[in-house]
Design brief:
By secondary structure, the protein is an alpha/beta fold. It contains 18 helices and 24 strands. Strands 3-2-4-1-10-9-11-14 form an eight-stranded antiparallel beta sheet, covered by helices on one side. Bound molecules: 2-deoxy-2-amino glucitol-6-phosphate (AGP).
């Protein structure tokens, strides 16, 4: 999704803006741009493509202005092009705006402005903001912004600068993320914390309906009525080293290798936070797990544990479907929103809707201070550290660790089960040591056009996750399916060209899964299996066998997902694709 950066201080803004944009690249984008106040003029540079194109186009243009804004655009309204790239300006080029999110009523606003004679230069919804602010400006940028936000509908964040007040940036948050970085004689605005981490760890996370007014001397926060708001400054526990690649070719590979730590830190964090939730899951008629993408797959695994280990009926729903489903929700329900970022708008809206209907809400997030964290009744944190690769890996295993932990709350065997969980990090290490074998398999199958992923019971969500990883970073079509359902349709796809990845640990459905493998083999499908070390039966019926150490049934997902992440990674990497920023995708999806 779009990324916003802003700087005002004593140094030239340009390098800080470009550095910030690079650190926002992971959000996904198709064009980028900056606006700087140079004397009494706005200078603007935009490029389609990567930040390096923007950097190249700025060579030989030594802008020295000390206030500026920058943007990475993920197209929603209008194709990726220079004219649609941000910043956008008013007709006289005196105000520049960068924006993330969607102005839902922009067509009406645009028509009104056109009737007043405004000529639009782009197809974006953003441009209306620049014109509205210019039209409302009477010597005070904050007042003009306050007048403008009254007219805007939707979920958005934006930042604006003007030649009339060099040194000032005003930022608005309503639905999309925006944080303020507090420096010494300089201040920052950004969509996400890593963008400003090299300069400051003192951060204010804005809430919806808040406006930040920044100058080099200070930051003031207001609500949409212009009333001052007092905010706490948070000290970010991460440092820049943990947000950099540390010798790995891609963030995704680094993050795959960080999973032992992510799981260990999450369990230790939960153990040390006393009573994680001040109530029992059993107090509720049912638990509803709401999430998107990989977080949804974590929820599917959580459901098995919640129902069997905690004895509470559990539903897992896609956030984007739940919000408009009309599903009855009440105070008898516990709703847990699972989201790495805590900013996914579908999840946030769905959880908030359930809260309005009386449900108790819990945020299971990796980002402390994120919208979902702040807006839910309670929060449970994963401690995976910043995840930069668009493909979620370490946050997935951290999420399932947290879900397992919650499921054990009142289980009579809690202590034994927790000690099994504490063994998981070292077993993941063992799987990671086999990455080279998996790279060889990746090389062999990287030219295939389709993959089928199968699993039953706890391995079914892992099959879904393996397929998602492959398609999102390698652009190869992959489908995850319950192995037992295959005979009801997808079996028709199987022939000698179809690799079928089967997740088959020795669990309660092992024999059934072996039968499904036979169904694949009979139709000449190529079986790539994931199973326990020493499982000769499985090995014998597989073209490729990716082994994980044996582990108790409930914990198999922690290990079986790892070879699938590695397989997807090496296929995409060997194909020479942009693993960390796959096309069309954004790390944090802040549009509906
Ligand atoms: C995972 O690899 C994806 N990039 C994506 O499905 C992601 O899990 C989804 O957008 C949800 O994100 P969240 O956990 O931050 O809410």
């Amino acid at each position: 999704m779009c990324g916003i950066i802003g700087y005002t201080g004593g140094d030239p803004a340009l390098p800080l803006l470009l550095g910030g944009l690079e650190r926002l690249e992971y959000r996904g984008y198709d064009s980028a741009g900056i606006a700087i106040i140079e004397g009494r003029k706005l200078v603007i540079e935009k490029k389609v493509g990567k930040i390096r194109e923007l950097v190249r186009s700025l060579w030989g243009k030594p802008f020295s202005g000390k206030t500026g804004i920058g943007h990475t655009r993920w197209a929603t309204h209008g194709a990726p092009s220079i004219k649609n790239a941000h910043p956008h300006t008013d007709s006289k080029g005196e105000f520049a705006v960068v924006h993330n999110g969607i102005i839902e009523n922009f067509l009406d606003l645009r028509e009104d402005l056109k009737r007043e004679g405004v000529k639009f230069k782009s197809e974006t919804d953003t441009e209306v903001i620049a014109h509205l602010i210019a039209r409302s400006y009477r010597g005070d940028l904050l007042s003009a912004v306050l007048e403008t936000v009254e007219k805007l509908k939707g979920a958005f964040a934006f930042a604006v600068i003007t030649v009339h007040e060099p040194g000032r940036i005003v930022g608005v948050k309503q639905g999309s993320p925006l944080v303020v970085g507090i420096g010494e004689g300089e201040n920052f605005l950004a969509s996400d914390i890593p963008a400003i981490l090299p300069y400051t760890r003192r951060v204010i996370t804005l809430s919806d309906g808040e406006i930040a007014d920044l100058t080099p001397e200070g930051v003031n926060i207001y609500d949409f009525l212009g009333n001052p708001v007092t905010k706490d400054i948070m000290i970010v526990p991460w440092d820049i080293v943990s947000a950099e690649r540390g010798g790995f070719k891609h963030f995704m590979l680094k993050e795959i290798h960080e999973q032992p730590k992510a799981v260990g830190d999450t369990v230790r964090g939960l153990l040390s936070s006393g009573e994680v939730l001040p109530f029992s899951l059993k107090e509720f008629r049912r638990v509803i797990l709401i999430a998107c993408g990989t977080s949804y797959h974590a929820g599917l695994i959580g459901k098995f544990w919640f129902e069997r280990l905690a004895g509470v009926p559990t539903e897992v729903v896609y956030a984007s479907e739940f919000r408009y489903s009309g599903s009855p929700v009440s105070e008898e329900d516990l709703v847990i929103g699972i989201s790495q970022s805590g900013e996914t708008i579908d999840t946030k809206f769905a959880v908030n809707m359930a809260k309005e209907k009386g449900a108790k809400t819990v945020a299971l997030v990796n980002v402390v201070g994120s919208s979902l964290d702040r807006e839910s009744d309670h929060s449970v944190y994963t401690h995976a550290g910043p995840e930069i690769g668009v493909a979620a890996t370490k946050t997935f295993t951290a999420q399932i660790a947290a879900l397992y932990f919650l499921a054990l709350r009142e289980n009579p065997d809690r202590e034994t089960l927790l000690s099994d969980l504490m063994r998981v990090p070292s077993l993941i290490e063992e799987v990671l040591e086999k990455a080279e074998d998996i790279e060889r398999v990746a090389e062999k199958f990287m030219k295939k056009k389709n993959f089928l992923y199968l699993g039953r019971y706890l391995s079914y969500p892992i099959a879904l996750e393996g397929a998602l990883k492959l398609k999102e970073i390698s652009y190869i079509h992959a489908e995850g399916y319950p192995a037992g359902e295959m005979k009801h349709g997808p079996i028709a796809l199987i022939d000698e060209n179809m690799p079928v990845v089967v997740v088959a640990p020795q669990d309660r459905v092992y024999e059934k899964t072996l039968s499904n493998i036979e169904e694949v083999r009979t139709r000449k499908g190529i079986v790539i299996s994931v199973g326990f070390e020493g499982d000769e039966r499985l090995k014998k019926v597989s073209s490729e066998f990716l082994e994980v150490p044996p582990i108790v049934e409930d914990l198999t997902p922690f290990l079986t997902v790892i070879p699938l992440q590695i397989l997807a990674y090496y296929i995409a990497s060997r194909l020479g694709l942009d693993v960390d920023q796959p096309r069309n995708l954004a790390k944090t999806v802040t549009v509906e």
